[in-house]
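Tutorial, part two.
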Amino acid sequence: MRELVQEYYGRTLQSSGDLKTSACCDTTEVPEWLRPLLVNIHPEVTARYYGCGLVCPALLEGCRVLDLGCGSGRDAYALAQLVGVRGEVIGVDMTPEQLEIAERHRTFHAERFGFANVTFREGYIEQLDDLELEPASFDVIVSNCVVNLSPDKDAVLRGVHRFLKPGGEFYFADVYADRRVPEALRNDPVLYGECLGGALYWNDFYRLAHRTGFADPRLVDDRQLGITDARLVERVGGLRFVSATYRLFKLDGLESACEDYGQAVIYRGSVPGHPDRFVLDKHHPIEAGRVFPVCGNTWRMLNGTRFKAHFEFIGDFSRHYGLFEGCGGELPFDLANDTRVSSSCC
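Running the prediction step on this input gives:
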């Protein structure tokens, strides 16, 4: 499949207009705060963009970032502006034609930004150990619609875990299916190149995350994908695909379920660009100045990462109250007739 992907993205596709699905983001979906960054990026780099989401999390100033499957470098050059002169971005891709475009415009972007903090390396995202990178050296690792193209997704996530610093995060957009993709479709060259054939069933992704050290994947946003080619519509049948952005934290102590320890946080409103609220994920829009009850995992995601200074923390782990209401998971036992239980927790 590597040869197929290299052919499709290196020679078959000449611009995002050649795609047959809506997997790649329309620039109209880009938030206002990000658009000035994209204006600074060379048009040829932007034209060869094939991502399916946004991979620019908050609070990146001074961070060291690794971009897996960087392609022509659009995200890498956007991230370069966010990490600033004290930060660094390294892009990795296996497609020489894409990397040639990214490299060709490095001087352009250094002059535009006023600093040079981006480098690119040719290699496979399943084999990060071959790239002479230092383990546990990245604050953030990103990827934009690339993990689905990998023939060894376990190796990708194991590598991500190895190269993240403690408290670091994998913030990435990718394509998922509502069920397991049949083998015939997985091996279809066009569907694979369009990021559909290699899409994981969402529940298998959670299992993959758990076994590679990421106990609690957090969904940031999602959107259903449309297929614009009538022949592909007929081929996929009832399968539905979504583009989804997740953040996975490398943290000790995270549990496989959201447990309630009576904890809460107060957001100080101090993350640049986010004075009113901080969005950890789709279910945690934390308003500034308000006491916000959280599960133990969310408490750790804020307390053990680069976000710590921007929150006040209430409580500890000394007392457990069961599953955190509304945060996922269900009590497996039927206790309806137990007089000690007055109502369900979720």
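The mean pLDDT is 88. In part three we will examine how such features are distributed along the chain.
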